[in-house]
Each structure stands twice: as structure tokens, then as C-alpha cells.
Amino acid sequence: MTQLPMFKAFSTLLRRDLLLAFRHRGEMANPLMFFVLVVSLFPLALGPDSRTLQPLAPGIIWVAALLASLLSLEGMFRSDFDDGALELMLLSPQPAPLLVLAKVIAHWLVTGLPLIALAPLLGVLLHLPAQAMPALLITLLLGTPVLSLVGAIGVALTVSIRRGGLLLSLLILPLYVPVLIFAAGAVGDAAHGLQVGAHFMILGAMLVLALSLAPIATGAALRISIG
Amino acid sequence: MWLFFHKLGSPKHFYQLAGRMIPWFAWACALLMIAGLIGGLVLAPPDYQQGDSFRIMYLHVPSAWMSLFIYVTMAVSSAIALIWKMKMADIIAACSAPIGASFTFLALVSGSLWGKPMWGTYWVWDARLTSELILLFLYLGYMGLLVAIEDRRNAARAGAVLALVGVVNVPIIHYSVQWWNTLHQGPTVTKFGQPSIAASMLIPLLLMGLAFTLFYMTMVLIRARTAVLTQERRSQWVRELIEHHE
After folding, report:
1. pTM check: above 0.95
2. B157/A181 Cβ within 8 A
3. B169 touches chain A (CB under 8 A)
4. What are the angstrom distances between the C-alpha of A153 and each of A183, A210, A215?
5. Domain count of the fold of chain A
6. Residue B185 confidence class, pLDDT cut points 50, 70, 90
7. A window 175-194, beta carbon within 8 A of B
8. pLDDT above 90 (res B71)
9. Per-residue pLDDT at B2
10. Helix, strand or coil for residue B50?
């Protein structure tokens, strides 16, 4: 039997996951709806005054993005775990971290990218100044992949637990704190017209760190969950 | 050396060795704690600014040390368990978590009690308090994961991965929170050069730190012995032990 080249395996899995996601378009929309709904609850709770909403906008948008990404995470390995496909992937000669990376990237393309596209609209709803919009987009672009990568570890650990959703948030949310701090901080500073290059670099460093370490931990966690 | 490790890895030897070590640790802990408490609560002079309320430091600071120390211990024994598949390392990691969570909680409570007279409020979103709070969440998540997975071996291995992920994140969380906001007084003991604390105040603090460490060791050995007995309840030596007792 000839062995599939590594890159070929990676791209095949990526394409398969994207295809599966497009066949279930309805599910794709759910985290987005959640994102929009959570953000639109805040003006109702805090009052419509733009002076109250404006300073809170970066934090609200980022917390909502964090929760939406958490909500969408659960599905990352679920169906593959249930029908045994995951077990076959881990038994294959390809390195597990590579396959994990393909799945995480597919998941981010389907759930993270639409979130970023929607974010400016929500910024307008919360009266976020226009000069903070680029910062909002860049932090989301750098930050949400970190959320997906780190979250994948938690999903891999809890995939064998029947109702692991609540536990997943307990495991993952503390690990999201650094991303939240720097991302929301950058958007807030940009709204005040300050320099935010340093924030982007730190977020980029986090992304590089997560990109290189998280797939290894996820692969190990999946092996344990499958037993 | 290898033989020693090998023996430590076997539950039976661990059980016997721990049984012999516990009284030593417990007595040393009691003596040091009495000395530290007398030194800290009676002998040390009141602070010129904080008066007597600085004395809560003798509880607060060692608890905070222990909360981090135990997390690192958990991560190290998790690594040992994952790499060398040592049964006892799993048990030590699992038994450490509730103790570490308790110390974290104690550090938070004593910190907020101290904060009331000093800062005028029980809680401020200060960097170190916040990272201690997040550390508590990390402990609780670890314990939640261990409870949720039914198969004990799988639970231990999953917990080990989580502890290692957590220990990579602890410094990142610590520094990002520090950057975010700080109001806490800077470290007084580990400052380079002259520590900015009088020797009469420092010595009891170090004694208390040592006493807390010994307390943790005593507790973790007692818990690990119980865990070993439960886990090995079907093996021959545990049965003999029980018959011997009856």
C-alpha cells in the first residue's frame, strides 16, 4: 500500500471537513446568530446611550466572540468521534498533529471567518469609532484562530464525556484570558487613537505559540479520549 | 537510584514508605508552624504603616506560594506519568489538586480580608488577585475533568494533558494580567539585593512557608495512601493488609 504524502493527507481532510460543513449550512449560521444576539442584548440591558456603549463596545464584542467560538467548538470532533472516523484517522500513518491542524483550520474557516465578517456591523451597532474598526478586524483575525486551537485541546479531552459542554467551558475559558485581555485592550486603545502595534505583536506571538503546540496536545488528548 | 524509583512506582512500596514518612513530616510541620506563628504573631514588631493587620501575611503569602508550587508539582508529576507511565505519579497529581485549590482559595480569602482595611474594599481587580482567581478556575477545571471521566486510567491521562497545558499557560496568564492592571505591592522577599522586609518579620514568614510545604506533603501522602488502597483493593497485598488489621 502506498502511503499518502503528508500534505496530500492534510489537504484531503481539510477539503472533506469544509465540504461536510457546507452540506450543513444551517448549523454554520447558529454561532453567528448567537454572536449577533448576545451583542444586541447589551444595549437593551445598559440603555441606548452611545456614551455608555462606546467605551464598552470592544469588551462586549470580544466576550461575545469568545462565547460564540466556545459554543461552536463542541461540534469540532463530535460527529467524527461518534461514527468512528476519528479512530481511523488516528490509526493512519499520518502524524496526528497534522490531521488535527487540518480539522482546526477547517473549523476556523467555517466558524471564525464569518464572525470576523460580521464584527464591523456589530461595531456600528455599539457606536465603536471608525478608527477602531481596523484594530477590531486585526485582533479578531489574530485572536480567533488562537481560540480555536486552544479550544481544540479542551474539546479533545471532553469528547468522550456525554454532556461535556459545561465542563468544556470550565476548562477552556481560563485559558482564553490572555487573548481577551490583549485583543479587547487593543481595540479600546485604538478607539482612543493610541498606538496598538505592540498588542498585535503579542497576539501574533500567541498565535504562533498555539499553532505550534496546541495540535500536539490535541493529538495526545484525542488518543486518550479514544482509549 | 533507579531501583529507588522503581520501588516508588510500585503501589505497595509507596504505601509502606509513605506510612513511615507521614509522622516525620507531620511533626516537623507542627513544630515549624508553632515557631512561625509565635514569631509572626507575637515576636515580630507591628508594621509602621499597616499596624497589626500585616500579620495576615503569615497566612496569605505561604498560601499563595503553595497554590503555585502545587500546580507545578501537579504538572511535573503529570509529565512523569505521561512519559514513564508511572502509576504513582498519576495518583500524586490527582491527590494534589484539591489541596492546591484549597490553598488558592485561602490565599484569595485572606487577601481580600487584608484588602478591606488596606484598600478599603474586599475585592479589587488587581493583577495578582485576578491571576490567583484564574488559577483557582484552572484547579476546578482539572478536578471537574477527573470526576467527569469514568474510566480511572483515562481520567488520569486526560488530567495529565490538561495540567501540562495549564502550566504552559500560567505564566502567560500571569504576565498578561499583570500588564492589564496592577495595584498589588511588589514582591518584598525575592527582590534582588536587600529584601525590603526586616529579618524579624522575614524569618517567621519563611518558617511558615516551610511549614505549609510540609503540611502539603503530609496531606498529599495521606490522600495518596488512601487512593492506593482504593485503586489496589483487589490485589493480594491489600487483602492481606486488611486481614492483618482484623
Report:
1. no
2. no
3. yes
4. 21, 10, 8
5. 1
6. low
7. 175, 177-178, 181-182, 185
8. yes
9. 62
10. coil
Separation of alpha carbons B93 and B72, rounded Å = 10
- Confirm or reject contact between B141 and chain A (CB < 8 A): yes
What ipTM does this complex have?
Answer: 0.84
Are B161 and A221 a contacting pair at CB < 8 A?
yes
Percent helix, percent strand, percent coil in chain A, to nearest 5: 85, 0, 15
Helix ranges, B120-151 (H)? 127-148
Touching check for B137 and chain A: CB below 8 Å? Answer: yes
Q: What are phi and psi of B47, to 5 degrees?
A: -70, 145
Whole-angstrom CA distances from B186 to B116, B178, B181, B196 are 19, 11, 13, 10
> What is d(CA A103, CA B209) in angstroms, rounded to the nearest whole number?
47
Instruction: For B51, list phi and psi in degrees, rounded to 5.
Output: 65, -135
What single DSSP character describes residue B51?
B
Opening angle at CA A172, ends B160 and B121, nearest 5? 110
Q: Is the pLDDT of residue B217 over 60?
A: yes
Contact B161 A217 (CB under 8 A): yes
Residue B33 CB-half CA count within 13 A: 14
* All structural domains of chain B with their residue ranges: 22-41+55-187+197-239
Residue A176 domain boundaries: 3-226
Using an 8 Å CB-CB cutoff, list chain B residues near A171: 141, 144-145, 162
At position A94, the amino acid (one-letter code) is: Q
Q: Sort out which chain B residues have CB atoms less than 8 A from A224's CB and list them.
A: 154, 157-158, 161
Flag residues of chain A having pLDDT under 50. 1
Residue of A100, A177, A202 to mutate when probing chain B, most B C-beta within 10 A: A177
